[in-house]
User: What shape does this take?
Amino acid sequence: MKKIRKKTKKAKRAPTPPTFPPLTWMDDEGMHVLASGTAPSPDQLEEMTKKFQEGIRKSPMWEEMVRTFGKEKAEQLLLQCRAKLK
Assistant: This one.
């Protein structure tokens, strides 16, 4: 004989949306990041831009840019490195 088990009711909960790790890739336009969450504000984009530019200044790439293009042109190129929302 089989045992009869009493079914228990599961609490009904709203399903949680799946979370995915950020997806990043590089192409001709630069580095791209696809992540879940809310879009950054203009202030947050500006802060990301500043941190990105500071990182470039502290990297060996900055020294190479200055040697290749000169300080003034390197500064102009650095200003083109910005965080953008697409």
